Amino acid sequence: MNQHESYNAAAKRYVVGGVGSASLILITYLAVTSSWFEKPMSIAFFVLILAFLQLVLQLVTFLHVQAEAKPRWKSIGFVSSMIMITVVVAGSIWVMYNLNYRMHTSGEAMQEYMLEQNKKGF
Amino acid sequence: MSTHTTVSEKNATAELGFWMYLMTDLMLFASLFATFYILRVGVADGPTAAEVFDINYVMAQTLVLLASSVTSGMALVSMKFSMKKQALVFLGATILLGVGFLALELNEFIALATEGNSWTTSAFLSSYFTLVGTHGLHIFIGLIWASVLFVALAKQPVVSDNHVRKLSLFTMFWHFLDLVWIFIFAVVYVIGVYA
After folding, report:
1. pTM here?
2. Per-residue pLDDT tens for B8-60?
3. What is the least distance, in Å, from the CA of A37 to any CA of chain B?
């Protein structure tokens, strides 16, 4: 963190971050309790955007990432982690969605299909 | 090149090392998030998210954790400006709010389990308990850490750079746990229930 920051400036960061985060949480709460959106997809999208806004707000106000001196190892580490996370999370969801879509035969039908395949041998 | 390291260099190195640990922890949480998101529809004969979660209760939890994140940051700022008493007050508030958060979470877990909706009920509940429980375990470890720091700081007559560094690492950990909670709140409790 910046060594030359004054006490007031540092305290202000935390107040801004706290009030800002609380407002974003409140907007999320109001959006779902008073049904601003109808489609589940729009709700999910809206809520995730607010969550990412809060992430950025807290990174700036609480963790003070922008004050890091060059070379910005922490920021580089964070960005590369986010890339890996996107691959892991989006990849897992995509693969499982695809698997579910391609294998949407239910219980008994699936059992029969598997037995049939078994008879054919491997 | 100088042959000795300055205090600020030492602090920067410690912070970077701890940050790297936090990034690996982030990976752990990411995989648990992916697992939860995929398994959340697998409710078997158990309840759905909408049947077991109460948004008002989780709102209280979220705001308590946010407040504790702010007070932990204020404790660090106070320490940096050598206001030890104020730092101890803020650190104490952080611990109390953290205990409050953990109590709310355990209360929710116990209520779920005693109603017969434990982690053995469905894939949805297994992944829920794993994700939220892992976060809760981090909070628990953070509380032990903060308490040890509190006692150590209270005993010291003068604020040294070492104390500032120790507190700054804890504060990073605590902010990180609040960051993870933002997504638990959004994905598990809001999207899980309403979308």
Report:
1. 0.89
2. 788 888 999 999 999 999 999 999 999 999 998 888 888 999 999 999 999 99
3. 10
DSSP structure class, residue A70: S
pLDDT at A97 over 70: yes
Establish if B80 touches chain A: CB-CB under 8 angstroms.
Answer: yes
Q: DSSP letters of B50-77?
A: HHH--HHHHHHHHHHHHHHHHHHHHHHH
Residue A46 to residue A31: CA distance in whole angstroms: 9
> How many other CB atoms sit within 10 Å of the CB of residue B100?
16
What residues have CB less than 8 Å from A3, skipping those under 6 apart?
Answer: B8
Cβ–Cβ contact B110 with A under 8 A: no
Which residue of B24, B38, B57, B84 is the best one to mutate when testing the A interface, meaning the one whose CB has the most A CBs within 10 A? B38
pLDDT of residue B17: 93
Q: Chain B residue with minimal CA distance to A83?
A: B27
C-beta atoms of A11 and B77 within 8 A: yes
Locus of tokens 């042959």: B3
Taking contacts as CB-CB distances below 8 angstroms, the residues of chain A near B19 are 73-74, 77-78
pLDDT at A69: 80
Instruction: Convert the pLDDT of each residue in A85-94 to its tens digit.
Output: 999 999 999 9
Tell me what percent of the residues of chain B surpass a pLDDT of 90: 77
How far B172 CA lies from chain A's nearest CA (Å)?
A: 7
